[in-house]
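Can't paste images in this forum, so I'm doing it all in text. The chain is below; anyone willing to post the predicted structure tokens underneath?
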Amino acid sequence: MEISDFIKLVKNMSSEEVEGFLDKLSKYESLDKTLSGVTPDKREGILKKIELFSESDAKDDQIDDHGKYMPEIKKLEFVHVNFTGVGSEWDGGHYGLVWQVNPKFDSFTVIPTTSKKREEYADVFSIGRVLGLPNGETTLLVSDMTRVSRKRISPVKFQHWKKGLVTSRINDAFIPRIEDAISISYGGQTSFEMFLRESTMVAMPADLSPIYSWRFKPIFGRYERSTNMLYYRLSNSDVWHMMQMVNPNSHIRKKEKIDIVKGLFSMNNAVRSAAEAEYKRLYTQQ
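Text version of the structure:
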């Protein structure tokens, strides 16, 4: 709108309309002062966040006669979340996995997801293809677990070829993997991989085969240098396991040993093959 057109519009307003208009403008004065010092692109981004936040916050609560929020949301279901974050916080629309939910509480815990390929960690891992979510693998970011209001979310449903319209969710079989990730990311537990990297000097397992299934398990470990034996157990178990360790056949620094461990778990085939060859060279009897 041109300034001249705006002036004509104001002149045609009644005194009551002008007063109401000015009153509304005054409410946005502090916001305008805040935004006046930022670039146009940043200003536009902030205004979009405000709009998204307002749309979510303006929603009415839907509660049934028993005090339960509707629609019903269950653990391990997927929802679409309208985040409005600051800085590096989650921002915009993203999918999330419901982890902890109480039907009588407005907010619940979600684990954000991404369809982008990520390096696997104890608390960042792929759960494969999920029906109802975008094509490709879905990665759970347990490290970014957070609480959100129901006003920010919408359930994710899809048309199943046999069952009709159903809610997108994952199988209960993923629960132990997520619990292990939470124990390590938030409970201060140590993963088997980290213990192997940091707490066994330059020694490595005589047999590599067990380390892959134990990689992200939260453990308590004890390395006895005198016997070159590793003792370890799950953090929630009293059952101890033993693993025979071996020292390298030539002098190496601990960093070199750590690089071998990292390489053995690499998603890159070439890196993994090189690490296996280096392990064989240094730790296999000639």
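The mean pLDDT is 90. The first helix runs from residue 3 to 11.
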